[in-house]
Amino acid sequence: MTNHFERQLEAYGAVIPDMPLDLPCYQVNRSLWALYRRLDPTVQEHPVCTEAEIVRRLDLLYMGAGVC
Predict the structure, then answer these.
(1) In a structure prediction context, what are the per-residue pLDDT tens digits for the chain, which is 68 residues long?
(2) Of 28, 29, 32, 24, which Cα lies nearest the Cα of 8?
């Protein structure tokens, strides 16, 4: 059984990488960026929001104290 977060990941085709890059997420992982923009509409491209930062925020938001 999938939860709401997993269904959103699948709907956007988003992939949470095992080794997130320290590069702008809107360039290297557009599907994850689109999902995160839906979850937090106030996030902006500048100052640069890296893929690693978004993975860390999603991890804390949905997985607890850092299990991803």
Answers:
(1) 577 778 888 888 888 888 999 999 999 999 999 999 988 888 887 788 899 999 998 888 877 655 44
(2) 32
